[in-house]
Each structure stands twice: as structure tokens, then as C-alpha cells.
Backbone:
């Protein structure tokens, strides 16, 4: 947000992209977006929304049914080999590096991505140090834990990232401290002029890291902008979260609730700021009567926007998406 | 809030990684090929010795095992078995091991990563085949040595052995890779490889002359690569036993072009 995109480099321009499988499955529908140099761009959406299909078209693995993907002069649809050179991709699946040591894997992929042996070795050493992976540098891939393997995957993409670094859920299984180091490094890579496309459904993390984001649902972009801009729809609102007692009966929606959702033993209530006192009274009464264990009042997050977008968009998650709201 | 860069004690990313120069041409192809050979070899590093051992055992095992079918192996049969076993082990590597590894990548979902690497795809496929040739050669040589010792053969190795071996492995791997890459379901690939091993071992005129097969199967084998692979290998290791070696080379070359063509088409095409 507070990083103006650098003026050098070129923007990845996706225009009116459409991808269908067979005659009736639409995976991407009229998607247009820009990822600028020096920017961390978030691509958010539930499972099956079409994120991976979009990425696979950018890196030349899939051919769009219609639309264009352009970076400066280069047409990434017509030239998949060029697309693979411009994009450095970290997939969600683990890398096949069972028999590589960490440094071997990072160095070799760095060279494959176009770096010279010496420059890649220096950069690999720097990254291994930055992400505090020194104790694993000679270990074989098959001996690494899921989180370390994930970080090594990131290293293989980041060691020579090219123009666009595409990261699919880079922090999965990674411990909180190294997550911070990872985000820091991602920011540094963006500051250096590389465009970063971050594919995730971890909205809370994305909110802190991305400059701009697009939310995809049901094959379409349902919102796009900075995290702050996307949250303005909830300006003047607060979120009341109530944890119910295990055996308690579920209370009815109070009159002041603008939105009311129950997920498992958790109540999520959207309220206007003006109703704050009333809401606290209501929640305290629930605790007093042994219906609720605890409550919490907080400003809306990007996640609130996200959840409301996804529900309004396709309606297919209207039954409540536990995974999304569990962290709420 | 975002994580802004406040410390820059470490050197920043080299600007060269942002190079807008797209790489192309023969030097890019060769560099990519060499790097991918290293990648493939490193990937197989831990099982490479086992694969070579399996190859040796299979080659030697075929020679010794098949010879148990006879009380006393007639000299002609001995030559057929010894030369045929090397062909069988080459075909098994190309038509079973190579496609199974592709299927494994698809099952482990590492396939997309491998093919999103910024190298020419044909260089990548060639690197793959190169490593399979490296897996095959030691076993083939050792199988021949074992056969020589077991049957006291008098093999006449000619220079033709180099193109004969390379073409046979190339045909086997390119056909194997063609269906492994083309078939979306890796389980189907695994099943096809099983069937192929069965057909190669029992119903292909590799370890015996084609005349022993029913006529209709002889006709089919005239167009399949198995018998011709056996013929060129036999032609390069013996004298006077193989006939129409030139024709066999042509049939094999046609299969090589077809297998490689399909592999190339499948790899370059996008869904």
C-alpha cells in the first residue's frame, strides 16, 4: 500500500480472459487485471474459483479460450516459452527434490531460470541465510519437514524470479517466525522491480502483505482494489464475535444486527458503530446467562469483505464456510 | 500495514534477474539441455544405482532364466537369448520405466512444476531420454558379458552397435514418453506399461525367430518395433544371423520419428 510501484519494468496485462473446458464448464470468465512492476498483487478466492486456471494460462501451461495476456511487447498466449521465462512459479504441490540438497535444488533451478552459476550461488546463499535455513542447507529434500520444504520451494522460485513471481500459497505449513521473514523477502523482491502475484485463500495474511488484490469467485472477478478500498463498504461498522457454550441453545439475531451468521459454536454479528453499547450489553447478557463463553468486538477486516463478496457473488458458500470463518 | 524494507544489510537481488532479454537459439537449447540432464540425473541419483542393478539382473536373469527352459541350450538358441535379452531390457526401460516416472510426476502433482520450467520442452524431453540411455547401457553390457560367459558365445561386435543401441532406446523411450505424456490418467499409463512388458517378454519375436508365432501375429510384428529392434541389435552383434537389417533400421526410424513427433506435439500443445 505504501509502496508506489516503480516506474521501470512492464505491467502484466490480462484482458477479457476466458477459459472453458468442453462446452459447459467455465473456469475463467471475462477476467481483466493488471499486475504492475514492484507490486504484490493478491489473487484471492475460494477453492475451485478459477485461480489456478488463471495462473496456468499466465505461465503457458494452458491456452485461453479467448482474451489476451501481455507483458510489454510480449504476447504470453502466443509465446508460452517466453511466458515460462518471464514467470517464476511456485506451485502448491511439493517440489520433486527428494534427492537434492537444499542448496543443490536452489542453485540448479536458479541456473535453469537463467542465472549464471556464480550470481545464483551468491543469491542462493543470501536467501538461505535470510530465511534462516542454514541448518538445512545440506539436507536432502526427502528429510525436510513440510514447512521447510515449502520454504525451499519458495527459494527455487525467488532465487532468480524474472519479471513475475507467482506464488501459490507460499506460507502453507511455515512457522510464524519464518512467515514474517518470507513476507519480508517477498516485499524486497517486489521493491526490486519484480511483479509478485500471490495466490491464496489466507485473507488475513494477504491483507497485511498485498498492495492490491482481486477476489475471484465463480470464474469471475467480483472485486478489485487495495485492501483499504475493499474495506470501505463496511465503513462505520464493527464485528461482534461471540463464542457459545458447547451445549447452549443458539440465540436469535438481535435487532441491531446488520448481518448475523452462526458457524459451529461461533456467532458473527455485523453492527453499526452506533449500536456498540447495545451490542456489548447483549453479549454480556449471553455470558451472564451461560449461553456464551466470551465475546470480542473488532473493526471489520478484509476477511469480512471477502466473506460477504463470496456469499453475494455465487451464493454457493451461503451455508457457511468454516475454514474462512474459523480464523475470524 | 505492510512489511517495508527497513534493513538492507544483505545485497539485493541482482538486476540481471529482471533481464528483459528472452533467451532463445541453439546456445539456450544446449544450456537448457545440459542443465536438465543434471536435474534429471540428480532426481534419480538415489535410485540410479538400484535401477542399474535391476537392469543388470534383468539382462543376466533373462539369459539364465530362459536357458532353464531347455535341458541343453542349442548354440543358435543361445545367441538368440543373449542378444534378445539386451533388447528386452532396453525396451522395458523405455516402454515401462520411463513412462512410469512421468506417471509418478502426474500422481504426485509435480508434473506442472517440471513443465513450467523456462527451458525448451524438447530439450527437457531429450534430457530425460539421455538419462534413460545412461540407465540402460551398463545393464546391457553386463548382460552380454554374462551371456558370453554362460554360453561361451562368439559375438562379432560391429560399429553398427552404436546406432542400433541408440535407435532402439530412442524408439522405446520416445514411444513410452508419448503415451505417458498424452494420457491424462497416470493409472492408465501404469496399466499399459504392464501389458507392454507382458507382450514384449512373451509374444514378441525377440528371444526366438518370428516363424514360431502364428501367421497373423507375424504380420502384426512386421509393423511393430520389437522384432526390428531385435534384428538390428542381433545384426550388430553377430554375423549372418540377422537379415534385412536395413529394412529394420527403416521401420525403427519410422517409429522413432512417430514417437518423438507425438511426444513433441503433446509437450508443446496446451490444454
Residues:
Amino acid at each position: 500500500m505504501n509502496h508506489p510501484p516503480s516506474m521501470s519494468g512492464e505491467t502484466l496485462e490480462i484482458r477479457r480472459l476466458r477459459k472453458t473446458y468442453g462446452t459447459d464448464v467455465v473456469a475463467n470468465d471475462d477476467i481483466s487485471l493488471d499486475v504492475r512492476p514492484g507490486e504484490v498483487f493478491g489473487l484471492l478466492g475460494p477453492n475451485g474459483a478459477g485461480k489456478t486456471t488463471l495462473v496456468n494460462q499466465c505461465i503457458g501451461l494452458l491456452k485461453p479460450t479467448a482474451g489476451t495476456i501481455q507483458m510489454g511487447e510480449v504476447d504470453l498466449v502466443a509465446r508460452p516459452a517466453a511466458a515460462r521465462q518471464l514467470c517464476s512459479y511456485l506451485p502448491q504441490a511439493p517440489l520433486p527434490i527428494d534427492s537434492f540438497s537444499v542448496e543443490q535444488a536452489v542453485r540448479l533451478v536458479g541456473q535453469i531460470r537463467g542465472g549464471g552459476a556464480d550470481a545464483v550461488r551468491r543469491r542462493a546463499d543470501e536467501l538461505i541465510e535470510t530465511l534462516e535455513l542454514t541448518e538445512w542447507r545440506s539436507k536432502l529434500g526427502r528429510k525436510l519437514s513440510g514447512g521447510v520444504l515449502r520454504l525451499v520451494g519458495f527459494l527455487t522460485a525467488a532465487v532468480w524470479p524474472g519479471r513475475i513471481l507467482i506464488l501459490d500459497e507460499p506460507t502453507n505449513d511455515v512457522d510464524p517466525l519464518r512467515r514474517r521473514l518470507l513476507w519480508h523477502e517477498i516485499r524486497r523482491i517486489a521493491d526490486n522491480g519484480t511483479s509478485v502475484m500471490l495466490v491464496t485463500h489466507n485473507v488475513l495474511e494477504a491483507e497485511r502483505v498485498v498492495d492490491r488484490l482481486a477476489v475471484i469467485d465463480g470464474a469471475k472477478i467480483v472485486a478489485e482494489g487495495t485492501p483499504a478500498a475493499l474495506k470501505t463498504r463496511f465503513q462505520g461498522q464493527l464485528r461482534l464475535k461471540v463464542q457459545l457454550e458447547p451445549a447452549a441453545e443458539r440465540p436469535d439475531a438481535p435487532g441491531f444486527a446488520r448481518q448475523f451468521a452462526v458457524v459451529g459454536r461461533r456467532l458473527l454479528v455485523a453492527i453499526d458503530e452506533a449500536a456498540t453499547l447495545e451490542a456489548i450489553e447483549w453479549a454480556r447478557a449471553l455470558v451472564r446467562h451461560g449461553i456464551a463463553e466470551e465475546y470480542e468486538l473488532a473493526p471489520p477486516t478484509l476477511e469480512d469483505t471477502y466473506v460477504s463478496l463470496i456469499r453475494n457473488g455465487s451464493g454457493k458458500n451461503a451455508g457457511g464456510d468454516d475454514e474462512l470463518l474459523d480464523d475470524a | 500495514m505492510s512489511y517495508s524494507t527497513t534493513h538492507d544489510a544483505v545485497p539485493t537481488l541482482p538486476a540481471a534477474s529482471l533481464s528483459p532479454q528472452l533467451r532463445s537459439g541453439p546456445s539456450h537449447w544446449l544450456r537448457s539441455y545440459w542443465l536438465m540432464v543434471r536435474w534429471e540425473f540428480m532426481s534419480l541419483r538415489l535410485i540410479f544405482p538400484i535401477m542399474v542393478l535391476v537392469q543388470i539382473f534383468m539382462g543376466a536373469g533373462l539369459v539364465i532364466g530362459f536357458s532353464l527352459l531347455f535341458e541343453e541350450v542349442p548354440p543358435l538358441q543361445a545367441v538368440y537369448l543373449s542378444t534378445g535379452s539386451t533388447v528386452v531390457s532396453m525396451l522395458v526401460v523405455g516402454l515401462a520405466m520411463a513412462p512410469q516416472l512421468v506417471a509418478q510426476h502426474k500422481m504426485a502433482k509435480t508434473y506442472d512444476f517440471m513443465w513450467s520450467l523456462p527451458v525448451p520442452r524438447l530439450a527437457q524431453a531429450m534430457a530425460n531420454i539421455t538419462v534413460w540411455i545412461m540407465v540402460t547401457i551398463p545393464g546391457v553390457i553386463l548382460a552380454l558379458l554374462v551371456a558370453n560367459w554362460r554360453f561361451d558365445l562368439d559375438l562379432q561386435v560391429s560399429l553398427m552397435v552404436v546406432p542400433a543401441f541408440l535407435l532402439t532406446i530412442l524408439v522405446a523411450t520416445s514411444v513410452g514418453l508419448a503415451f505417458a505424456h498424452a494420457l491424462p490418467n497416470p493409472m492408465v499409463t501404469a496399466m499399459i506399461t504392464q501389458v507392454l512388458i507382458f507382450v514384449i517378454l512373451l509374444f514378441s519375436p525377440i528371444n526366438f525367430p518370428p516363424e514360431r508365432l502364428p501367421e497373423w501375429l507375424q504380420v502384426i510384428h512386421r509393423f511393430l518395433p520389437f522384432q526390428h529392434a531385435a534384428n538390428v541389435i542381433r545384426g550388430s552383434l553377430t554375423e549372418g544371423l540377422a537379415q534385412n537389417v536395413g529394412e529394420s533400421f527403416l521401420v525403427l526410424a519410422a517409429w522413432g520419428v512417430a514417437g518423438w513427433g507425438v511426444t513433441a506435439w503433446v509437450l508443446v500443445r496446451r490444454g
Remarks:
- Chain B has one domain: 26-268.
- Chain B has a mean pLDDT of 87.
